[in-house]
Hints:
- By secondary structure, the chain is an alpha/beta fold.
- It has 16 helices and eleven strands.
- It has helices at 2-11, 23-34, 71-78, 101-121, 146-149, 167-179, 204-218, 228-232, 241-252, 275-285, 301-304, 309-319, 326-329, 332-338, 350-354, 363-376; strands spanning 13-18, 39-46, 61-65, 86-89, 127-131, 153-154, 184-190, 192-194, 238-240, 263-267, 346-347.
- It has a seven-stranded parallel β-sheet with strand order 3-2-1-4-5-7-10, with helices on both faces.
- Strand 4, helix 4 (101-121) and strand 5 (127-131) form a beta-alpha-beta unit.
Amino acid sequence: xxxxxxxxxxxxxxxxxxxxxxxxxxxxxxxxxxxxxxxxxxxxxxxxxxxxxxxxxxxxxxxxxxxxxxxxxxxxxxxxxxxxxxxxxxxxxxxxxxxxxxxxxxxxxxxxxxxxxxxxxxxxxxxxxxxxxxxxxxxxxxxxxxxxxxxxxxxxxxxxxxxxxxxxxxxxxxxxxxxxxxxxxxxxxxxxxxxxxxxxxxxxxxxxxxxxxxxxxxxxxxxxxxxxxxxxxxxxxxxxxxxxxxxxxxxxxxxxxxxxxxxxxxxxxxxxxxxxxxxxxxxxxxxxxxxxxxxxxxxxxxxxxxxxxxxxxxxxxxxxxxxxxxxxxxxxxxxxxxxxxxxxxxxxxxxxxxxxxxxxxxxxxxxxxxxxxxxxxxxxx
Length: 381
């Protein structure tokens, strides 16, 4: 009996999540812990210590604060994790603009430090799962070739951009170099992420909900600031953090289906949407004034919301919310760029659908779900 028990124990999985306080990292930890006993332990790694409400409480969960840009600290803090079987990389270094040499070097160094340690100590490592994004297909910086890119539905084998310094490419190449022939790996490319976090640079839900709360508090109209094309046409894919987390786990544990290492998968909700269709419903959910003319092309979030830090403080105090600053949740320049981007960024789900990954979400339902989550966590009123 003792021998049988040991064998079963050895087959259980142990995860390490780099970027556990982010939009997908939090959800990935939660979902893995719900899959116990298949997953007997989850290590969560992030640079900054956890704070409520991001804290995950479980005897199977172990948080480690680590600056992965420091190779000595990384080696010291991770070298005791010999039991890890699956590694999830859902983080990135945001100190430099994303399409720069500095960003490529910093993100590569961070992952290299983690891989060097894990490959030397985790002898039963089975899979490494990397999260990048559909920005893999399109540069976010001008000049934009609108004629060339306007009608694509991007598939996973779409060629890399020749003129772009994209750190996603650097990370994929690093995995190819370090893991080829040794450990299986996969790449996941979400679109516009929906989730809850106070540690995410591009936090759409946080930005949307802080904007809505300020509009409600000051009795301002809940307008959409952007271009008419972005308003009226399907422009970008939504990616629910629950779906992205499930896809990471699916790829990491289905080696019989995903037979070729280093495969990439678009990680998107599925059904397309327009902001014009869902904006008034979001406004109703946030209990704000939705004007008849919702599209205001001259409205810029970064200008309209500038200097509203004291207003947010009032909202937090009046509603007994978790203490956050505007910067913890909202990125106004991100909303301006998102709603004014000149190129469509839509992906194909044919590959994951064909391999049997069936999770799909309507983007409106995703947004409404995460609004409820943020209310429950006392991040928004």
